[in-house]
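Here is my example:
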Amino acid sequence: MPLSGRLLSLNVARASLITIRDREVLTAIGKRAVAGARAVGMLGIEGDEQADGTVHGGPSKAVYAYPSEHFAFWQTVRAQAGVAPWDEALAPGTLGENLTLAGVVESEVFIGDVLRFPGCALAVSGPRFPCFKFNAAMGFAHAAKLMVQSAWCGWYLSVREPGTISAGEAFTVVAGPREVGIGELFRARMGRP
């Protein structure tokens, strides 16, 4: 039986300047949920931007997906770090994801798998690697380190079939060659067993 899940939230942001460590940096990591259908083109979702094309965006990293299954962990560590109240839910898009998903996690997703939504198809192209902007978005200095340790990185998607997408839609995972998993590729590139 194929894997399936649901798009809990569709999130976009325009690039803007923020201050990180006394330096102004252009970023679009602060995604916010949007309602209704959005167009999905070869370079991403309508209304979304990527600030640094060397590490995000382009045809192979047009869309970023993150499993909601990890949100409780991030909510807890943000509370432990003193940057958020214990009962404050982590908002969709906080990790910079375009798609907040439920039903699949990194250990179940492989390069070449296709997430088939009613109005588009997105192919898994690689894991996300955290940077200093992730630390800033999460509000504490060790967030990227925790992502590396857990390998809860989410994954990038290329647009296989353009169309539309909206929150609440179900999707199925159409298996690709199933040779390289997202979790194992992330750990290998980060030098983790």
The chain has one domain: 4-189. Helices lie at 71-80, 132-138, 143-150, 182-189.
